[in-house]
Design brief:
Blueprint: H1 10-14, H2 18-37, H3 43-46, H4 48-62, H5 68-97, E1 105-106, E2 109-117, E3 120-127, E4 134-146, E5 149-152, E6 159-161, E7 163-164, E8 170-175, E9 184-192, E10 195-198, E11 202-204, H6 210-255, E12 301-304, E13 310-312, E14 329-334, E15 337-342, H7 345-359
Parallel strand pairs: 12-15
Antiparallel strand pairs: 1-2, 2-3, 3-8, 4-5, 4-6, 4-9, 7-8, 9-10, 9-11, 12-13, 14-15
Helix pairs in contact: 2-4, 2-5, 4-5, 4-6, 5-6
Length: 361
């Protein structure tokens, strides 16, 4: 057994530097933004929340960011960046780019006009496609947006049948209650027998101001990222506590002689783990040589004459009775056992006289 000293490669040395941590942080943020844009956070019953939290925690760790303080700060930055990118770069531009009601044309539906009527709106559309049994319009209220993914309200009044205006190809419908301050998603569908074909959707922003749209985007993205941040910090706290407990357990086992210190404890022939007390490797059968620095020093044990406790020969204090050793005591071996007894005064004087005579020239 020997201490393993494996030389580090240049890559391993680089991974311990701050530039490596910065690269890991940027890669983590990039992966997070890509996953949000693809809508992976909504997959598998929202297990995507956990997946993105894992990306935020473990990708920086792979690049050397292991301190809990650094990871906590990075977690805040990570989810702030995701929120800002979602609100300003993805959600709001999506609504603005896909809200051209006047130029709408899809699956035979075109010339869409929306007119405000009291607290509601009247929608007119021209249909020139294949003959259908029924033409419907869907007007859904958008409840929340995260990047390009929306949640919308579905209710019975959302889907309405279009009524034909005279003998023309124009159809119309009126929604009486369309609250202001919200974004709406508009689409049309044709029903022929049991088949229903839905056209492309368009966003109607006429009931919301620019401030309403911005607030809506910030709230939606912030809400989603906040839940991801909660999962991230729960994972960070749990992993930190587990690591601390493992370190304490290892230190205790090393002190008890049940584990070798880190850097030791491996066979020099095959590299397999060796436990204290083993004389042969369990894998290759090689003899285990214990380094001198790990060997226990052999100390003669003696028995205290006062309390009978067994103590090391070089002890300064009796651990059981609390007495302090001094020069007035000597070790007496009785029946092959060592005992500490007080030295008689006469004998101590004789010993001192002999020492003085020896010191004389």
């Amino acid at each position: 057994m020997e201490q393993q000293q494996i030389p580090e490669t240049n890559f391993q040395k680089f991974m311990k530097t701050k530039p490596a941590m910065l690269i890991g942080a940027l890669i983590s943020i990039g992966i997070g933004i890509l996953m949000m844009w693809l809508g992976l956070f909504q997959q598998c019953c929202n297990l995507g929340y956990l997946l993105i939290a894992c990306v935020a925690l473990y990708v920086p760790k792979m690049f050397g960011m292991t301190k809990t303080q650094y990871l906590a700060v990075f977690g805040v930055v990570f989810f702030l960046v995701l929120t800002v990118m979602g609100a300003m770069v993805f959600s709001k531009p999506m609504f603005e780019n896909e809200s051209n009601v006047d130029g709408y044309s899809s699956d035979g539906f075109s010339n869409v006009t929306i007119t405000e009527v009291g607290d509601g709106v009247q929608i007119s559309v021209t249909y020139t496609g294949e003959a259908a049994d029924k033409l419907n319009v869907n007007l859904y209220q958008v409840k929340m947006v995260t990047y390009t993914m929306i949640n919308k309200t579905s209710h019975d009044d959302a889907c309405r049948e279009l009524a034909k205006v005279g003998e023309t190809t124009t159809y119309t419908v009126t929604y009486d209650d369309v609250p202001k301050g919200f974004i709406y998603q508009l689409s049309f569908e044709t029903v022929k027998g049991e088949d229903t074909n839905t056209s492309a959707s368009v966003y109607y922003l006429g009931r919301a101001t620019d401030s309403d749209i911005s607030s809506f985007c910030w709230m939606g993205n912030g809400y989603t990222c906040a839940w991801m941040a909660v999962i991230f910090f729960i994972m960070l706290i749990l992993t930190t506590v587990m690591r601390k407990n493992l370190e304490k357990t290892r230190a205790r086992m090393e002190a008890e002689g049940r584990l070798y210190p880190q850097g030791y404890g491996r066979c020099k022939e095959c590299g397999s783990i060796v436990l204290p007390g083993e004389t042969c490797c369990r894998r290759c059968g090689a003899f285990i040589e214990v380094p001198d620095e790990l060997r226990h020093k052999k100390v003669d044990m003696v028995e205290c004459s006062e309390c009978g406790a067994e103590i090391p020969e070089d002890a300064k204090v009796r651990p059981k009775c609390g007495a302090v050793f001094d020069e007035e005591e000597e070790i007496v071996y009785v029946d092959s056992e060592a005992k500490i007894t007080d030295v008689p005064e006469e004998k101590s004087e004789e010993v001192s006289d002999e020492k003085n005579e020896e010191e004389k020239p």
